[in-house]
Backbone:
């Protein structure tokens, strides 16, 4: 069954050319060849301000650029977020983008009773988080606890109703040879074709 897939390309370099860009392109290629509809949001090429107060977050004007991203995400069946690991977490630009997108009015339905939280609006949407890093993936997972990825999965995606949420950690990206990279790209095409 064909799915609508939105890929959030979270690398902050607008010039592209990084392995994370190649991974996203391979995922999209596999998905499109399998008949899925794919839209990519290149965060580095968007123009949006950072939020600086609780008032802005809860009640501030939503920029048109962000509004169109919100519409794409709400219309998707599956969300893919891909980013490099910088200082143990996602790059600041991606965090700023997610803060803009996942405002309360977007993320939750209006509560049925005062004082209660509304239902998460990503309910029924699956997600995959893909993170590239210089260290071995197992070291980030076991020694560091993959804390930043868990935070994204739990505090943003699951909190707003998404599930199931899967992850792919790709380590040692600078040290890997062409064969290893080709294998990773092949895996991305397969995941894209499966829409998962």
Residues:
């Amino acid at each position: 069954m064909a799915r609508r897939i939105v890929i959030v390309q979270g690398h902050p370099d607008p010039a592209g050319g990084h392995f994370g860009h190649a991974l996203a392109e391979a995922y999209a290629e596999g998905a499109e060849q399998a008949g899925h509809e794919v839209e990519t949001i290149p965060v580095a090429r968007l123009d949006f301000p950072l939020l600086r107060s609780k008032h802005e977050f809860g009640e501030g004007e939503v920029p048109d650029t962000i509004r169109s991203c919100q519409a794409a995400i709400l219309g998707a069946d599956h969300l893919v977020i891909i980013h490099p690991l910088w200082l143990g977490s996602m790059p600041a630009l991606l965090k700023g983008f997610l803060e803009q997108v996942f405002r309360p009015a977007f993320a939750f339905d209006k509560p049925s009773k005062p004082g209660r939280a509304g239902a998460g609006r990503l309910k029924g949407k699956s997600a995959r988080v893909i993170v590239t890093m210089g260290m071995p993936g197992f070291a980030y997972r076991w020694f560091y606890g993959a804390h930043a990825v868990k935070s994204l999965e739990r505090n943003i995606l699951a909190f707003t109703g998404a599930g199931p949420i899967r992850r792919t950690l790709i380590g040692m990206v600078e040290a890997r040879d062409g064969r290893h990279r080709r294998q990773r790209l092949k895996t991305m095409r397969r995941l894209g074709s499966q829409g998962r």
The radius of gyration is 17 Å.
